[in-house]
């Protein structure tokens, strides 16, 4: 029955949608499955050729890049001579970054970004197809194929129109969605019943929620009748403790995924634990505070160039995460380079007086609605204190504090179904943690006595 279900969704639902959207992935997927075994030198040559084509296209069709050099780069190292693209620049100069070439069939993409302020961009249909192909290649390392049933521990949009769109996408992808935005132990019980009926082949979603679901099952002494092939975690740092807990409870391997909304998938974990970069689509640099390449074995800020998005070229884009390249050869046989670790991103969950939990991404949907009100801001942070009060910190110019207080007071009280004491602070910047992490949503626990 499961094989029939997979056949129906892969060939009669998913593939027709790809054709309609002109995002046919299978030629790209075949090439990626070959190139993952190419030598490092051959992969770097692919990157250089794609990079030069992208630079020429950007210079000729995107006003922001009209000052790019006309000469081809001789090596990937020459990319250092091109300025970085900052998130604020992308947000404030989006129109200048759009390509004016016709026929690219751009798709709009909106992401909260690591500072919480929304970033809206475009990606060409061809670029989306290559992004999807890289994603499915990464999933194949975990034993997952197109059409396999997925349980998605993810956000549910607040607006009705957006919720309907999410339901349609979930249907096409053969997945059920479990809200990570507001959940309690009673919700976990309902989720478990739904999953035992749906019988997913794999989980996908936020580390924190999947771990909390695992802890609920373990604490209740439940033996779930769910047979999973793999669990793919994303969007948050996966600790060794997270991995061990999730694998122990569900009896399958956890595979980490790293990416960002602006460029899509960046790296996927193989069965031997290597976090392999999608080097054919994305060029990744690590730089120090002065913008120089870090030395071998050192951590640095992650800078990406999307080699396949011609609708809105993102060249040397600083995504405000930090990482470290692996110096070891992965034993899996893939020649794609690996990240040793990624850090700089963390969302806590906040709670109401009943103990219901609200995942950090939940609050970014509220921020997206705020952006529609005309308030212009560059960053946001939610901090909850032991008395359950919430402070919202915003970075921006000419912000209306009274309007913002009323907005967040109403939105948080309504969405969290509780009377929440909300205050607003207008700040010059959102400070990072000592570890380098920038926490958009942060819960401060009461001190132990």
TrEMBL record:
UniProt superkingdom: Bacteria
Alphabetical list of SUPFAM superfamilies matching this protein: Acetyl-CoA synthetase-like
Pfam families, per the entry: AMP-binding (PF00501)
Domain named AMP-dependent synthetase/ligase: residues: 189-304
Name of the molecule in the record: AMP-dependent synthetase/ligase domain-containing protein
Organism: Marinobacter nauticus
């Amino acid at each position: 029955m499961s094989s029939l279900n997979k056949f129906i969704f892969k060939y009669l639902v998913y593939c027709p949608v790809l054709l309609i959207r002109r995002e046919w992935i299978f030629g790209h997927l075949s090439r990626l499955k070959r190139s993952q075994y190419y030598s490092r030198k051959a992969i770097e040559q692919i990157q250089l050729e794609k990079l030069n084509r992208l630079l020429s296209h950007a210079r000729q069709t995107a006003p922001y890049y009209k000052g790019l050099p006309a000469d081809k780069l001789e090596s990937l190292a020459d990319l250092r001579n091109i300025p970085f693209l900052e998130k604020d620049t992308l947000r404030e100069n989006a129109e200048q970054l759009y390509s004016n070439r016709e026929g690219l069939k751009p798709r709009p993409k909106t992401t909260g970004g690591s500072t919480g302020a929304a970033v809206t961009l475009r990606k060409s249909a061809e670029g989306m197809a290559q992004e999807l192909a890289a994603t499915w290649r990464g999933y194949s390392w975990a034993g997952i194929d197109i059409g396999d049933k997925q349980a998605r521990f993810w956000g549910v949009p607040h607006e009705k129109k957006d919720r309907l769109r999410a339901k349609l996408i979930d249907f096409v992808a053969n997945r059920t969605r479990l809200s990570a935005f507001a959940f309690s132990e009673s919700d976990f019980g309902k989720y478990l019943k739904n999953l035992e009926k749906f019988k997913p082949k794999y989980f996908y979603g936020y580390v924190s929620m999947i771990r909390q679901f695992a802890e609920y099952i373990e604490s209740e002494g439940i033996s779930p009748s769910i047979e999973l092939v793999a669990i793919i975690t994303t969007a948050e740092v996966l600790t060794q403790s997270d991995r061990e807990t999730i694998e122990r409870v569900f009896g399958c391997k956890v595979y980490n995924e790293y990416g960002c909304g602006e460029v899509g998938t960046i790296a996927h974990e193989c069965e031997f634990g290597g976090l392999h970069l999608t080097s054919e689509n994305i060029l990744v640099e690590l730089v120090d505070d002065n913008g120089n390449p870090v030395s071998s074995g050192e951590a640095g800020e992650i800078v990406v160039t999307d080699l396949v998005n011609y609708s809105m070229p993102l060249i040397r884009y600083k995504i405000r995460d930090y990482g470290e390249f692996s110096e070891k050869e992965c034993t899996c046989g893939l020649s794609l380079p690996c990240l040793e670790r990624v850090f700089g991103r963390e969302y806590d969950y906040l709670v109401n007086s009943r103990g219901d939990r609200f995942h950090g991404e939940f609050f970014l949907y509220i921020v997206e609605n705020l952006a529609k009100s005309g308030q212009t801001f560059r960053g946001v942070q939610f901090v909850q204190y032991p008395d359950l009060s919430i402070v919202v910190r915003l970075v921006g110019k000419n912000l209306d504090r009274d309007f913002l207080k009323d907005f967040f007071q109403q939105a948080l009280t309504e969405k969290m179904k509780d009377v929440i004491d909300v205050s607003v602070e207008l700040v010059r910047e959102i400070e990072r943690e000592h570890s380098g992490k920038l926490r958009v949503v942060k819960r401060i626990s009461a001190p132990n006595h």
